[in-house]
Every structure is written in C-alpha cells, then in structure tokens.
Amino acid sequence: MNRPRLALIGHGKMGCALAQVAAERDWPVAAIIDESGNRDGRGITGQSLAGADVAIEFTTAAASPANVRACVRAGCPIVVGTTGWDDVRSAVELDVLSAGGAMLWSPNFSLGVNLFWQVAELAARLAARAGGFDAHIVETHHAAKRDAPSGTALALQRLASAAWGGGREIPVTSVRVGAVPGTHELLLDGPFEQVRLVHEARDRRVFAEGALAAACWLVGRHGVFTMRDFLLAEVPPA
User: Fold this and answer.
1) Quick one: how many helices (H) and strands (E) in the chain?
2) Is there a single domain that holds both residue 76 and residue 89?
3) What is the C-alpha separation between 4 and 171, in angstroms, rounded?
4) 189 is in which domain, residue-wise?
5) Is 121 found in the same domain as 69?
6) To 10 degrees, the CA torsion angle through 75, 80, 84, 89?
7) CA separation for the pair 200, 197 (Å, rounded)
8) What amino acid positions are annotated as catalytic residues?
9) What is the pLDDT of residues 49-104, one digit of tens each?
10) What pTM value is reported for the model?
11) Which CA distances in Å does 220 have to 15, 171, 184, 193?
12) 90 and 124 belong to one structural domain
C-alpha cells in the first residue's frame, strides 16, 4: 500500500496517538501543526503543510471549521475527527464542495463503533416493534473531553431514535471521569429483562488506525465523505 505524506493538525492525545501509529507503520509525517498554528486556520498554508498529500485534524470545535477551510484552500484533502461543531458543518461542507476539495468527517473512526451503530439500530427497531421496552444511551469519556454528549453518542442517538420511531428521541447521559478513552452503551429495559449493547475502546490507537486508513482512501478524491462511504467502498458486495 502506498502511504501518503501526512500532515497532523492538532498534537493533543489523538495527535500523539496518530504520530505514534504512523511511525510504527512507516507512514511519512510531513508536518505537525500544533495549537499555535491551528487556532484559526491562519497557520495552515501550503508551506506549513510541507507537501502533505492529506491532513488529519483532531483539534477543537472552535478551531476545526477554519482548519478545514484552510486545508481546502491549500489543496490538501482533510480527514476530520473533531466533534462538537455540527451547527456549522453544513456550511463548511458547502465550502469544501464549492472549492472542489475533499473532506472525510466522522465522530468516531473505530471500525467496531461503526459495527456497533448498525447493531444498535437494528436492536432499537426490534425492541420498539416488540413493545414494553424503554431505551437510554450512556456514554463515558475522560475528564478532559469538552463536548457532551460525544459526537459518537449523538450519532448513536440519531440512528437508534429513528429506528425506535414514534417521534421519540432516546435520551443520553454523559459521564466524564478519569482517563476513559470512550465507552458507549445502548440500554433496552423491559419489565423483567434488560438488553445492554456496549462498545468499549481500550486504547486511542483504534481511532488512529481508522483515521489513517480513511486518509489513505481520501487521497485523489473530491467531495464530502463519512466513514460509511469508506467502509462501503472497501467491503465488496456479498
């Protein structure tokens, strides 16, 4: 597999995990742009990207939209893992499309989470059809995570609530404690039984692995994509 040259935008917990996995897998890192250069996108230019073929961005909700637009202006496709900026994402996506750029955004790059979403959606639909069940989502992350609920929990809520039907939105409880990478749970509770569907991330490298795979896939493409686009493209039809 040809490994594109990477620009890592953000050097927090996920940026460090990406740098570590990239080094282990011999992925060339052309640039690392830390907080001093990615607060408002001004530090992201063709020069600072240093010839990178694709950027991976994990920063903050306040910084991410400007970072995406800056990468597109510089002609660099971008994979975005930052959450908490859904209110402006549609506008940013339109800017990416109008500029002929490329962006792949996901609230979670774990392949297991993407599997979990599909199983949870089916379980919610079946429980609603059976009747007698109540539903709740619980998500737990490390104490430093800023957005609550998490982007992963919100995606789970959208999918499961649509399957639950009846205009009912499944409530979400957020827990912030310690150094937990990320745990998400769909609870289906009946009068005399309970079903719990849980995804638990044990290490941030699971997100890094998925982001690197998505970055390789994004090179040479134009448009706005999600992990679903990547996964469906990678899995041949049965």
Assistant:
1) 8, 10
2) yes
3) 41
4) 111-201
5) no
6) 40
7) 10
8) 141, 145
9) 999 999 999 999 999 999 999 999 999 999 999 988 999 999 999 999 999 999 99
10) 0.81
11) 23, 40, 34, 50
12) no
